[in-house]
Amino acid sequence: MAATLIAFEGLDGSGKSTQIQIVGDILRDNGYVVHTTREPTNGRWGKLFRRWAAGEIEASKEVVLELLLADRADHVRSLAGLPENAVILCDRYEASTLAYQVASEIPEEDVLRAMNSYTRRPADLQIYLDLPVYAAWERAVSRPEQERYERYDFLKKVYEEYAKNTDLVRVNALGTQGAVAARILDVVLPFLESRVKGT
After folding, report:
1. How far apart are alpha carbons 49 and 100 in whole angstroms?
2. Closest Cα partner for 54 from 66, 35, 40?
3. Model pTM score
4. Which residues contact 136 (CB under 8 A, 6 or more apart)?
5. Residue extents of the structural domains in the chain
6. H/E/C letters for each residue in the chain?
7. For position 148, what pLDDT does the model report?
8. Is the pLDDT assigned to residue 199 strictly greater than 60?
9. CATH of 4-197 given 3.40.50.300, 3.10.50.40, 3.40.50.720, 3.90.180.10
10. Which whole number is the average pLDDT over 162-175?
11. Fewest CB atoms within 10 Å of the CB: 70, 78, 99, 165?
């Protein structure tokens, strides 16, 4: 059995990075081998995407999608070397690609076709931090620098696309960091226990 991959999904500002850190620390305290990662990565394709997102370079929406998928292909290959007992907590994964790229007006069938043309490693569990658009936007714009995607009208479209995805386990992301982490652990711990038991 391969390492367990848990994807954390949500809008910009939904608290994914913070929750991965909190949940990761708690899982380690409970004896799990935890590997944290994110997409886009710091690989060559991920860095190009981040330059585009920051407004430093221009690219068509189709090229942006290819950058994300090439970055994921490299990422999947790197994760393959982790031990079977590892728990991978990934900040953004396939559901983000689908939601954000469809919101960018690439037809869903084209996004899925492009995704399937690359090496895929589906997540074992997808946690969606469900935060109202206004709250996510307020958090995102409070940062020193904003990216192309961090616009209220765009985030609203992304939220609507996420809402269509029935594979996500939705967790209320309103409240204190500790309260949100407790809700996530209520999902993650039983899931990991069932994986160990093979049920």
Report:
1. 13
2. 40
3. 0.95
4. 10, 11, 12, 13, 14, 155, 159
5. 4-197
6. CCCEEEEEEECCCCCHHHHHHHHHHHHHHCCCEEEEEECCCCCHHHHHHHHHHCCCCCCCHHHHHHHHHHHHHHHHHHHCCCCCCEEEEEECCHHHHHHHHHHCCCCHHHHHHHHHCCCCCCCCEEEEEECCHHHHHHHHHCCCCCCCCCCHHHHHHHHHHHHCCCCCEEEECCCCHHHHHHHHHHHHHHHHHHHHHCC
7. 87
8. no
9. 3.40.50.300
10. 97
11. 78
What's the pLDDT band for 1 if we cut at 50, 70, 90?
low
